[in-house]
Every structure is written in structure tokens, then in C-alpha cells.
Design a protein that fits this description.
about 425 residues, alpha/beta, three-stranded antiparallel beta sheet
Length: about 425
């Protein structure tokens, strides 16, 4: 089964005005849908975060992959490494990963595995070693936010919306409003654990939000807080001590492995990361400094599904917990996450997902169902999802019209507060 062509389609997905340490989400999140075409008529799908650099690199990659055997993933990875390794850049200081190679590896590998699964009439989870579980737990993911639905509505609201679709539009800038957001999301999707994206407001407000969530949901619902590395060590210690016994884990409150290691000696809360340990090269120093107790993988940022399986084994070997980070994704990424979450033998915590925040979709049949906080492995070969070409074209047209080419939350925040600027350490 040989690659005969690759189609890369840039899309723009409606996103509400969500706050984080880097600023404010734009009205649209950018994604790229990748289709790997084969000589037997099978098409493999993948979905990755979108940027002009990644899109141009995927286009540049095409001629190097035409004629390659879908099954020869090591050869394909080496071709990508040889061509783009010299252009590799750093992860960057933003909450999202800005490396090029891992995105390219993930995009092509997931699509190839989708092809292989379709050829063999087996789901991707079977290509990763088989099921460790039939359904995968996900966590509610809360955000401080301004009023607004995002997308074409921006800061405006759809007055006809109800339930979670209404709640996702409402302002959430206080502990009480965060509790209301959590109740609406958990009622809709049945989530059994809750994460709050912090680093956006003063630590007093964020700590009080966690205490309010504990009061509202009780001790049996695990809680997580992620300040995105924008707190000082002193601030993280101060508020960490207030949240001991409250948090299931404390995600990246400070920046870098050394500070995370120092924090772990001062607070009695497991530390998690998707910022200080983000590559296999980071593992030795992670062990040296004791930087985290839990690594939040992301197949987009660790170089694919098989790399994430390798990371899972390393976590088990060194006594690290394992879960997954997410980004503003649609159903193809959600399906890939679910196959991976079903396959890994060592899964300690419910996975992150932004999925409830997005109302758009590019797969046939609409959004994958989240029930009682779980997603079942999609039925059917490969990823088990099919592309809705009408929706793909609609979201591509929106990309062409919206004018966004890169994610930049600082630019969006300046539209609300012209004096705002991103700081590596704010509190």
C-alpha cells in the first residue's frame, strides 16, 4: 500500500473567548486536516494544530512521501527527520507546543495507522497492542472566560441556546461563575473529574475557585489546577499549601524542571506537566530533578501514537503517572486520543479535552459522544471516523475568510486590554 498523494486542508473552528496565561483565545482555533491517499483507494485521516509554518511544511513534505509504503513508518519518520530536522525549533514559552517535527510525525503517522487499520479491517487500538479498556475517561476542562460564543458571534451570544450550549457562552470570571460552568458541563457530559485552566486571574481568585469547586462537588470529584507556569515558586508554594488535600494534581504552576522539582519538596500535591518535560530528551533531567509525578502526553506533541506508547512504558518504569493533555480539537483528534487512551496499559488519570468547547465538527455523524465522562472506542476499522466533506469545505472557507494564520493569544488579549502583554512570570 503506497502513498500516491496527500491533501492538507486548513480549517477555522469556532472558539469562545477563553482566558489563559498567554492571553485570550481568538474567535477561531486553527486546525489542519490531513488526508493520506493510497494506491488501493484507502484514505487515512489525521488532524493537528494549524499554523502557516506547519501547513507549508506539510506541503513541502509531499514529494518526499509519494511512493512510500504506508507500513514503513520508521522509513517515513527518517525521511521527515532528514528533510526538516535542520529546521527544528524549540517548544517555546507559550502554553502550546511550537515544535515542527513532532507535528509532522504525528500528522503522517496517525493517517498511516488509519490506512493500515482500514486495510486490515482492525481498529487503530489493535495496532497499538490491543485494548487495555473499552472506554476512556475524560475530565471536565473549565476556563475563565469573557462573555461570548466565539466564532462569527465573537463576544456576542446566541439567545436561543440552552443547556451547555448556553453555559459555554456565559462570562466566568469569579469562583461562583466557575462553579456554574462546571455544573453545566458535568450535567451535560457526566464528567467525574474537573480541571481548571489557571494563570489568567490573580492566584487568590483561582485558589478560591478550587475551594468553591470542592465545596460544590465534594471530596469524591478529583480537582486539578493548571496555572501554565506563570506563577513564581513562592506563589506556587503559598497557594499550593492552601490546596493540599484539595487537588488531585497541580499542573505546571512554575516554569522549568528545576523549579518544579523544588516545588515538589515543599507541597504535598502530585505535580503534573505538559510544559517542563515534553520530549524523550527531557526524561533524564526530569528524573534528576524530580520535576513531576505525572506526565501529560499529547500525541500531537510527542510525535504520534506509537511514541506516546513508548512514553507510557517509561512513565511506568520510573513511577510516573500518565494522562493526556489536549488542545482545541475536533473529532479526528478525539478519536486518536481515545484509541491511544484505550491502548495504554498504564492510565492513572482521566484525560484532558477541550472537545465540549467546540461546536463545529468535520466527521460524519456529528461529535463523538461523551457519556458519564467516558468515550467508547469508535467502532469500525482505523480511527473509526469518516470525513464530512461538506463540513470540511465550510470550515476551510471560514479559514480563508477569517484572516487568521497563526495562534497568538496576546494579540487577541490586546483587543480587550491594549496595555496587556505576556509575561513569563506574572504572579
Amino acid at each position: 500500500m503506497k502513498i500516491t498523494d496527500i491533501y492538507n486542508t486548513q480549517i477555522a473552528v469556532g472558539d469562545p473567548p477563553l482566558l489563559n496565561a498567554a492571553g485570550l483565545h481568538a474567535p477561531y482555533a486553527l486546525r489542519i486536516i490531513v488526508e493520506v491517499i493510497t494506491d488501493v483507494g484507502i484514505i487515512g485521516l489525521s488532524e493537528i494544530p494549524g499554523s502557516e509554518k506547519i501547513y507549508n511544511s506539510l506541503e513541502e513534505l509531499k514529494p518526499h512521501l509519494i511512493g512510500q509504503d504506508i507500513f514503513q513508518l520508521h522509513t517515513i519518520k527518517n525521511l521527515i527527520q532528514d528533510e526538516f530536522g535542520k529546521k527544528e525549533d524549540q517548544r517555546g514559552v507559550a502554553p502550546w507546543d511550537q515544535r515542527l517535527l513532532v507535528h509532522l510525525f504525528s500528522a503522517i503517522e496517525v493517517a498511516c495507522l488509519d490506512c493500515i487499520g482500514k486495510k486490515l479491517d482492525r481498529p487503530v487500538v489493535d495496532l497499538l497492542g490491543g485494548r487495555s479498556r473499552d472506554k476512556v475517561p475524560f475530565s471536565a476542562y473549565l476556563f475563565y472566560k469573557y462573555e461570548g460564543a466565539g466564532g462569527e458571534l465573537g463576544f456576542d451570544m446566541d439567545s436561543n441556546a440552552f443547556g451547555w450550549l448556553k453555559a459555554r457562552q456565559e462570562e466566568a470570571l469569579s469562583p461562583d461563575q466557575i462553579v456554574s460552568q462546571a455544573k453545566a458541563m458535568c450535567e451535560e457530559f457526566g464528567f467525574q473529574s474537573i480541571k481548571l485552566k489557571g494563570g489568567a486571574l490573580h492566584p487568590d481568585i483561582e485558589c478560591n475557585s478550587m475551594l468553591a469547586l470542592r465545596e460544590a462537588f465534594g471530596p469524591d470529584v478529583p480537582l486539578r489546577l493548571d496555572p501554565n507556569a506563570i506563577w513564581s515558586l513562592e506563589t506556587a508554594i503559598k497557594y499550593g499549601k492552601k490546596m493540599e488535600g484539595i487537588l488531585e494534581y497541580y499542573e505546571d504552576p512554575v516554569r522549568g524542571q528545576k523549579k518544579m522539582g523544588a516545588l515538589s519538596k515543599e507541597v504535598n500535591i502530585p505535580l503534573a506537566t505538559n510544559m517542563c518535560t515534553t520530549s524523550f530528551e527531557d526524561i533524564p533531567s526530569s528524573i534528576q530533578f524530580g520535576s513531576e509525578h505525572i506526565i501529560l502526553s499529547d500525541h500531537h506533541f510527542w510525535g504520534g501514537l506509537r511514541a506516546s506508547m513508548e512514553l507510557n512504558k517509561i512513565c511506568q518504569t520510573f513511577g510516573r503517572g500518565f494522562s493526556m493533555h489536549s488542545n482545541s480539537h475536533l473529532g479526528i483528534s478525539m478519536a486518536a486520543m481515545t484509541h491511544l487512551g484505550a491502548a495504554v496499559p498504564h492510565l492513572d488519570y482521566a484525560l484532558d479535552t477541550h472537545y465540549p468547547w467546540q461546536v463545529d465538527e468535520v466527521i460524519k455523524g456529528g461529535k463523538l459522544r461523551i457519556e458519564e465522562g467516558f468515550v467508547e472506542v469508535p467502532k469500525g476499522p482505523g480511527l473509526g471516523v469518516e470525513l464530512d466533506r461538506e463540513q470540511l469545505q465550510k470550515l476551510h472557507t471560514r479559514f480563508l475568510e477569517c484572516g487568521l494564520k497563526e495562534r497568538n493569544d496576546e494579540v487577541e488579549m490586546k483587543k480587550v486590554n491594549p496595555d496587556w502583554k505576556f509575561d513569563l512570570q506574572r504572579w
